[in-house]
Every structure is written in structure tokens, then in C-alpha cells.
Specification:
Number of strands: 5
Number of helices: 8
Largest sheet: 3 strands, antiparallel
Strand content: 5-15%
Structural class: mainly alpha
CATH topology: hpI Integrase, Chain A
């Protein structure tokens, strides 16, 4: 559940572990991070999938009840995610093993590769500006850049069609 929540929000471990039922707003389709790394609160916009996931967690819970609990029913404590995540990575034969921050990176990378403006990604992640996004995610998916440019630019109609064919990097006529 904790991993799913992180993948759907881009939240840091401490942010997601501290969420309570009142942090989910079903009408707005958001979750609130009451205290982030910078100490500033923020609201994260959820996808339809995210809204459905958080609705399932929040339904029937008192407003102050934690959304994410360990298997023993207790709240997640500092660094308690490390062992279960390492075990899951080992079971999945992931080498090297992923850390919790990789889930945040995955969230931001998916947004960047889908052309979401960096300012929006920064707001979702709780960054004050786009510098961190540009530094860590701006270089992603050159294929996305190529596809986007080719689809958006269109043709000028100034080059005559030819019978030249490119196969495996070689040009044939």
C-alpha cells in the first residue's frame, strides 16, 4: 500500500507515512501533505486511479486515522520502509535494489516524459521552483522529444518525395 501511495503521489516516505484520512479530499481529488521537507504544506492532485486508491484507504476511517499502516496495524516509523522494500526488491530480483526515493523519481519521470510542464511537476513534488526538476528529469526520454517535435512540426511541403529507403541506418535508393 505504501509503495502504491508513493507511486501515485510522488511523496517522500515521511510525507506518505504521516497521511491521515482527513488529508484526502475526494471532491477535489487531492491529498494534503501537512508538513514537507521544507515545512510547507501542499496539495497533490491525484489521477482517477489515485483518487480511487485513496478513497479505498480513507473510507470508514476516522479523520485523524493514519491512511498507511504496517501489517501489524501500527503506524510506519522512521526508516521502517527499508527492510520490506529491500525484501520486495530481492523477491523481484531487482539488482541493484531500489530505495523509496526511486518511487518519487518514477512519479516525476512519468510526468516529464508525458510533457507535463516542469512548474507543475515542481508544485506536485513540493519544490519552490523548477531547478531540481530541470536538473534531474529534464534530460529524460529523448525519444519523447523526437516524437513530439515530429508530430507537432508537420511538413512544409518544400521537399519532393523520393524513393529513398533507410534500413538499419543505411540509405538505399
Amino acid at each position: 500500500m505504501l509503495v502504491t501511495g508513493a507511486l501515485l503521489t510522488g511523496c517522500r516516505y515521511g510525507e506518505i507515512a504521516a497521511m491521515i484520512a482527513d488529508d484526502f479530499n475526494v471532491d477535489a481529488g487531492t491529498v494534503r501533505v501537512r508538513s514537507s521537507k521544507t515545512g510547507k504544506p501542499r496539495h497533490i492532485v491525484l489521477t482517477d486511479e489515485g483518487r480511487q486508491f485513496f478513497a479505498g484507504l480513507a473510507t470508514g476511517r476516522a479523520g485523524g486515522a493514519r491512511l498507511f499502516l504496517r501489517q501489524n496495524g501500527k503506524s510506519w516509523g522512521k526508516s521502517e520502509q527499508q527492510r520490506p522494500l529491500a525484501a520486495a526488491c530481492a523477491a523481484a530480483r531487482l539488482d541493484p535494489s531500489a530505495n523509496f526515493h526511486a518511487l518519487r523519481h518514477t512519479y516525476a519521470s512519468r510526468l516529464a516524459m508525458r510533457g507535463v510542464p516542469f512548474a507543475v511537476i515542481a508544485a506536485q513534488l513540493g519544490h519552490a521552483d523548477t531547478r531540481m526538476i530541470e536538473k534531474h528529469y529534464g534530460h529524460l526520454a529523448p525519444s519523447y522529444v523526437a516524437e513530439t517535435v515530429r508530430a507537432a512540426f508537420g511538413t512544409l511541403g518544400i521537399v519532393e518525395p523520393t524513393k529513398v529507403v533507410t534500413i538499419a541506418g543505411q540509405v538505399y535508393t
